[in-house]
Design a protein that fits this description.
Length: 345
C-alpha cells in the first residue's frame, strides 16, 4: 500500500518515514493563481463552483507539493441553509445580516439541513479527489459549533465575543438548542464529504480560545462531542481548537483522532498534555513565513526535533497562512520538512 497517503498513516498513529505536511489556508489570497480566479468570481460564487474550487486547490497543492489537499470552501456557507443571510464584504470579511440574538430567532432557523442544499461541497470533494494524486490525502472540513455560533450571534467576526458569551451565560437552554442544531448541520456536511471521498476531516474551532476551560467544558464540549460521535468510525477527525492552550486538556477528552495545536505553547508541551492517544498537528507560527528562508528552516527544525519522530505527528502551521506570505517561503517550509525524512534519526 505504498500509495496510501502519509497523513492517513499518521492519523492512525503508525510510524511514517517523515511527518506529513500540509498548511491550513494553503490556497488563498497569497497565491497569484487564486487572485486571478477571484478577479473573475465573487468568493461565494467560487465556493459554489466545484470545478473552480478543485482548480484553486490543485494549483496550491501543485505549487507547494504538500501531502494533503484540504478542499477549497469555507466554514460559513452552511449557515445559509440554516436561514442566515451571509455575505463576504471586500476588506471587511464575513457579514451576517440577520444574527441570532434571542429565543424568537430559533423559530426562523431550520431544525436541520438537507444534504441537497450543500451538494456543491460534496461535488467539490469528489472533483478534488479526482484531480489530486492518490498518494495525497483529501481533507474535508467544517466549522465547529462554537465558532459557527460566534459568527451567527455576532453577525460577523469579533474580538471579544461579548454577545456570544452573554447569550451562552444568560440563556443556556437556548444556547444549547442552537449549538445542537449547528452540530447536526455540520454532521450532515461532514458525513456527506466523507461519502464523497474525503479521506479525513478537520473541524475548525478557531475562536473557542476566547473561553475559559470551565466554560468550554460546560457550554461547548458536549456539542463538539455530539458532532464527533456522529462521525466516529466514518473517517479520521482532526479537531483544531485555537487560541488558548489551557483548553488543550479539555480537547484531549473528546473523541477526535488528532488535535491541532496553535503556536502559543511548545509542541513538546502540547504532546505531553495530549498524551499518546491522539495524533498531533501543528504548530509553526504563521508569521514565521514572513521572515526569510534561513529563519523558516531553523524554526521548522526546532519543531521537527521536538516532535518529528513521534508517531502521529503532522507538520502544519499553528493557524492559517497569512495573505502577506511570499509563496516561495511556504515552498521552502515544505522542502525543509521533507528533508527531515532523509536526516538520520
Ligand atoms: O486552503 C484552505 O484552507 C482554503 C479553504 C478555507 C477557506 N476558509 C477559504 C477562504 C478554509 C479551510 C477556511 C476556513 C475558515 N473560514 C475558518 C477557519 C480557519 C481559520 O482561519 O481560523 C474561518 C474562521 C473562516 C471564516 C472566514 N472566511 C473569514 C474570517 C474570512 C475573511 C477573512 C479571511 O481570512 O480572508 C473568510 C473568507 C475566506 N475563506 C477567504 C478564503 C480564501 C478569502 C476570501 C477572499 O477574499 O478571496
Amino acid at each position: 500500500m505504498t500509495d496510501e497517503p502519509l497523513l492517513l498513516r499518521a492519523l492512525r498513529l503508525e510510524p511514517t518515514p517523515r511527518p506529513p505536511i500540509w498548511l491550513m489556508r494553503q490556497a488563498g489570497r497569497y497565491m497569484p493563481e487564486y487572485r486571478a480566479v477571484r478577479d473573475r468570481v465573487s468568493f461565494l460564487e467560487l465556493c459554489r463552483t466545484p470545478r473552480l474550487c478543485a482548480q484553486v486547490m490543485a494549483d496550491a497543492v501543485g505549487a507547494l507539493d504538500v501531502d494533503a489537499a484540504i478542499i477549497f470552501s469555507d466554514i460559513l456557507p452552511i449557515l445559509i441553509p440554516l436561514g442566515f443571510d451571509l455575505d463576504y464584504l471586500p476588506g471587511d470579511g464575513p457579514l451576517i445580516r440577520n444574527p441570532f440574538r434571542a429565543a424568537e430567532d430559533l423559530s426562523r432557523i431550520a431544525e436541520t439541513i438537507d444534504p441537497d442544499q450543500i451538494s456543491y461541497i460534496f461535488e467539490t470533494v469528489a472533483e478534488t479527489r479526482r484531480v489530486i494524486p492518490r498518494r495525497k490525502a483529501v481533507i474535508g472540513f467544517a466549522g465547529a459549533p462554537f465558532t459557527l455560533a460566534s459568527y451567527a450571534v455576532e453577525g460577523g467576526g469579533s474580538r471579544l465575543f461579548a454577545r456570544t458569551k452573554t447569550l451562552m451565560r444568560s440563556a443556556p437552554e437556548l444556547w444549547s438548542r442552537f449549538m445542537d442544531r449547528l452540530a447536526d448541520a455540520v454532521a450532515v456536511s461532514l458525513l456527506g464529504q466523507i461519502a464523497s471521498g474525503a479521506d479525513a476531516v478537520q473541524i475548525f474551532d478557531s475562536w473557542a480560545g476566547a473561553l475559559a476551560p470551565d466554560e468550554y467544558r460546560t457550554f461547548v464540549a458536549p456539542h463538539t462531542e455530539r458532532l464527533l460521535t456522529r462521525l466516529r468510525g466514518k473517517a479520521p477527525v482532526i479537531y483544531f481548537c485555537a487560541g488558548n492552550p489551557a483548553l488543550l486538556p479539555e480537547a484531549a477528552r473528546l473523541s477526535a483522532d488528532a488535535l491541532g495545536i496553535d503556536w502559543r505553547l511548545s509542541i513538546r508541551e502540547a504532546c505531553r498534555i495530549v498524551g499518546p492517544k491522539f495524533a498531533v498537528q501543528g504548530n509553526l507560527d504563521p508569521t514565521v513565513l514572513l521572515t526569510d528562508k534561513k529563519t523558516i528552516r531553523a524554526e521548522a527544525a526546532r519543531i521537527l526535533n521536538a516532535a518529528g519522530r513521534r508517531p502521529g505527528f503532522i507538520f502544519n502551521l499553528g493557524h492559517g497562512v497569512l495573505k502577506e506570505t511570499p509563496v516561495e517561503h511556504a515552498v521552502e517550509l515544505v522542502r525543509a520538512v521533507k528533508e527531515f525524512a532523509l536526516s538520520p534519526s
